[in-house]
Specification:
The chain has two domains: 154 residues, Ferritin (Up-down Bundle), CATH 1.20.1260.10; 70 residues, no CATH class. Helices cover 74% and strands 3% of the residues. The chain is built from ten helices and two strands; from the N terminus they run E-E-H-H-H-H-H-H-H-H-H-H.
Length: 235
């Protein structure tokens, strides 16, 4: 039986405890890459609802990271060493990113379950259980986002839902309004034409006007499209 303060845990296994500490380090490292991943998802999310859901998940993950850091220091007296060299690879699309995040949450549940199993006191095991339940909620939210966006994309690209020319004009009014705003703000016409022709192409591929706008804006903002960045600077 292992005693720690006022808590005790029967069946303490030193090897399992060391494994828990090692998995804590894995859970904490990669923080910078995770931050870039969430920034990407939020930047290309097609609706405000999507952005708010992903932002809430990001905030939870920041809190989890801090909890694991404090837990590791509590047991070892040392800080987790940060990973200085991290690479972020953008997902092929927003839905691909959501799918990646969903499987990431499920993988995290398995890792955190192992961490909890090896901890020697009830207090920290309860903290990890709290993190575990958050991860399961995150997985459910990502599943909702993935299903919602895949369903919407399917309906938009379904040949049985063909629109008349006037239907398309009404459907893309959002993009027209955004283009007019850019003209009023003095953005050069070359850049405006490039952006909104690209958005029209994406709408034709099944994106909603909002999704198309956010995607092209993200290409410019993140530097994925160097040509858009260059034309934005033109006078």
């Amino acid at each position: 039986m292992y005693y720690l303060g006022n808590c005790m845990y029967q069946g303490y296994d030193p090897e399992a405890f060391q494994k828990s500490l090692s998995l804590m380090v894995e859970a904490v490292q990669g923080e910078k890459e995770d931050r870039l991943f969430y920034e990407y998802l939020i930047s290309v999310a097609p609706t405000q609802t999507d952005k708010e859901i992903i932002s809430s998940i990001r905030d939870d993950e920041i809190r989890h990271n801090l909890m694991f850091k404090k837990m590791y220091k509590y047991f070892t007296g040392q800080d987790v060493m940060d990973v200085t060299e991290e690479t972020f690879k953008k997902p092929a699309s927003y839905t691909d990113g959501i799918q990646q995040a969903l499987f990431g949450e499920l993988k995290a549940v398995e890792k955190y379950r192992e961490i909890r199993k090896g901890l020697p006191d009830r207090h920290n095991r309860d903290l990890v259980f709290e993190i575990l339940t958050d991860e399961l909620k995150h997985a459910a939210k990502y599943n909702f986002l993935y299903t919602e966006n895949r369903t919407n994309g399917h309906l938009q690209s379904d040949p049985n839902t063909e629109k008349t020319p006037d239907d398309w004009i009404k459907y893309t009014e959002f993009l027209v309004e955004k283009a007019q705003e850019d003209v009023k703000n003095g953005i050069n016409l070359t850049h405006i034409f490039q952006e909104f022709i690209l958005m029209g192409v994406l709408v034709g591929k099944g994106y909603s006007p909002t999704q198309a706008y956010e995607t092209v804006e993200a290409w410019e903002r993140t530097g994925e499209s160097e040509l858009l960045q260059e034309s934005k600077k033109m006078t």
